[in-house]
Amino acid sequence: MEVQKLPDQTRMPSNPSQRKMLDSRCGLNELYPIARLTQKMEDALNMSGKAAAPADKDCPYTIELIRPEDGKAVIAMLKTFFFKDEPLNTFLELGECEELEKYSLKPLVDNCSYKAVHKNGDIIGIFLNGLLRRPTPGEVSESAADSCKHPKFKKILSLFDHVENNFNIFDLYPKENLILDGKILSVDTNYRGLGIAGRLTERAYQYMRDNDINVYHVICSSHYSARVMEKLGFHDVYCMQFADYKPQGEVVFKPALPHVGVRIMVKEIAKDGAKVAQTKL
How many angstroms separate the CA atoms of 280 and 260, rounded? Predict the structure, then answer.
């Protein structure tokens, strides 16, 4: 979905202490967190920012669970509508990357990813989600980049390992043991304006309600993806500008404007209007 081009200035704070709002060890899972949701689909959402209503009998598509056997179709869609436009992929000229494809399919085992299926049988939208589980005391998270052999993709994984070392979502939500983690939201640009992104997200909310999960977590490296999530009611809990990431003393990522940094965003979906407990860090 095309998004209206916004001014180059983002809302990311300029003060480093404000950008790194939560400074603690991280429990992010190892999957390359593509949120990034670079697919430009703001017009798939209602102007109110709320997810679209469930599809009715006249809707040309249905929302269904993505199963492991859908893997090839999912990757085919991502190659067409997502991978080539993700800002970090574009900056590095990543091209074909089998490791990226494998990482993208890892969340399917958690059975909380959804697809929009057109009445002709084509997949026209996907929202890949995984589960973040509170690490046990003393558990050391494996570095995602260490086992990566693709040199360009390794740079991307190293960036998010760095984020992992500076932020732990479970420190912010001390009473939560399970959090839904949005990985990739992508919509076929030939089906814009049908509320697909909103309906996929609403189905994820329903999964959270059914499984007593209160927090939805996404990581965005794309300005456009962050705008989409803001319209869906997500808010920042951690920000880092690409200019501040200098593992060897030099900036690694310089994607085209308006993409200027990584933002971790969350939305609380508590039952009966109850407030989700947070720790002030």
Answer: 26
